[in-house]
Amino acid sequence: QRLLVESGGGLVQPGGSLRLSCAASGGTFSSYHMGWFRQAPGKDREFVARITNNGITDYLDSEKGRFTLSRDNAKDLVYLQMNSLKPEDTAVYYCAAVSRFRGVPSRDVAQFDYWGQGTQVTVSS
Fold it and tell me: N or C, fewer C-beta in 10 Å, the chain?
């Protein structure tokens, strides 16, 4: 019904950049709030960024100025541009979605109903 597929992960050196993509299908993309979460080894899944159906973004303070979240409704895609990457950014990154009819989600993973399979991001020298 609602399928999310992440791509763009890989290995990058500290200070480098990476752009993640999330392709959505099975629904009206413009009707969903989209989020990115990450999960490092031995850690719980944590909030990274969120963009509402109408383009309002939310970032953690540690990511503000480094990460940029955008969406292309015509292509059913959401992007996470990550610059100035740090080793602590290393994690599996997950794309998530929730219908706008449920309201703007918080940063809680439980607020999102649909999830991708994840893409690995490794920041190491």
Answer: N
